[in-house]
Specification:
With 251 residues, the protein is an all-alpha fold. It is built from 12 helices and no strands. The protein has 2 domains: 90 residues, Endonuclease Iii, domain 2 (Orthogonal Bundle); 102 residues, Hypothetical protein, domain 2 (Endonuclease III, domain 1), CATH 1.10.340. The longest helix is centred in the middle third of the chain and has 18 residues. The radius of gyration is 19 Å and the shape is elongated.
C-alpha cells in the first residue's frame, strides 16, 4: 500500500484505526481509513502543546513496574479499569509466583486470582492472564509477539493494551488512548472526542510519529497533575490557560 494513498477500506474490527496519508509503518499498515490532513493552525497549536509537555516531563517514566515485555503485558492487562498504583501493589507478589508465560500457565487460575484480588475484576483477569500465558507458551515460544494483530488476539488484550506493549516494550510507534488522553484531546481541541478510535487518529495526525510513545506518557502525567477531570482550574493549567475551551478539531 502506497503511503500517498488517500482512501482506505473500512476497519474490520474495533482495533483498527483511522490514519492520515503518510503515517504508515511496517507495523501499522493494517490500520485503515482516511483522515483529513490537519490545518497549519492546528499543527502549530499541537507543536506548542508538545513543547509545554516536554518542558514539564522531558523523560517520563513508564508507570507500571515490570522487568520484561511479558511482565509489562500482564501489568497492562491488570491496569484496565484500575489505577497504576493498585497494579504496582499486586504485581510484585504475582511475579514472585510466576514471571514467564510458561510458569504462569502452569499456575492454577485460583492462585493468579488470589494474587490480584486487591485490584478487582480478579476473576476475568486471572483467566485472561492464564489464557494469554498458555498461548504465548504454545504458539510463540514463550515470547511476546511484536505485532499489533497478534497481540490483539490474546485474551484480555485490546488495541489500547497492544499499543502500550508495542510502544513501551519494543519501541514501536503507537499512541494508546486511555481515559486521560481521550479527555485531554477533546478539552484541548485536538480531537472531536467522538470515540477513542477517532481520537487516536487525530493525535497521530498532529504529532510526529517519532514522538508518539513519549507523548502518550506526557499526556498521562500532565493530565493527572495539572489537568484533572474534576476540580480543574483552567486558569492555572499551563495548557488550558492558553488553549482550553477551543472548539474540537475536525468536528
Amino acid at each position: 500500500m502506497c503511503c500517498s494513498t488517500r482512501f482506505f477500506t473500512e476497519p474490520k474490527h474495533p482495533g483498527q484505526l483511522y490514519l492520515r496519508p503518510g503515517s504508515f509503518t511496517a507495523q501499522n499498515t493494517h490500520l485503515v481509513k482516511y483522515v483529513p490532513d490537519p490545518s497549519p493552525e492546528l499543527l502549530a497549536k499541537a507543536a506548542d502543546m508538545q513543547r509545554i509537555l516536554h518542558d514539564f516531563y522531558p523523560d517520563p517514566p513508564i508507570p507500571l513496574k515490570h522487568h520484561s515485555p511479558y511482565t509489562l503485558l500482564v501489568a497492562v492487562v491488570l491496569s484496565a479499569n484500575n489505577t497504576d498504583k493498585c497494579v504496582n501493589k499486586v504485581t510484585p507478589g504475582l511475579f514472585l509466583l510466576a514471571d514467564t508465560p510458561a510458569a504462569m500457565a502452569d499456575l492454577p487460575v485460583e492462585a493468579i486470582r488470589d494474587a490480584i484480588r486487591a485490584c478487582g475484576l480478579s476473576e476475568p483477569k486471572s483467566k485472561a492472564i492464564k489464557g494469554l500465558s498458555r498461548i504465548l507458551t504454545e504458539e510463540y515460544g514463550g515470547e511476546v509477539p511484536q505485532s499489533f494483530a497478534a497481540l490483539e488476539t490474546l485474551p484480555g488484550v485490546g488495541h489500547k493494551t497492544a499499543s502500550v506493549v508495542m510502544a513501551q516494550a519494543f519501541g514501536i510507534p503507537a499512541f494508546a488512548v486511555d481515559t486521560h488522553i481521550f479527555r485531554l484531546a477533546a478539552r484541548w481541541g485536538l480531537s472531536d472526542g467522538k470515540n477513542v478510535v477517532k481520537t487516536e487518529a487525530d493525535l497521530k495526525a498532529v504529532f510526529p510519529e517519532k514522538d508518539w510513545n513519549k507523548l502518550h506518557l506526557q499526556f498521562i502525567y500532565f493530565g493527572r497533575e495539572y489537568c484533572p477531570a474534576l476540580r480543574h482550574n483552567p486558569e492555572k493549567c499551563p495548557i488550558c490557560s492558553i488553549y482550553g475551551g477551543q472548539p474540537a478539531a475536525n468536528s
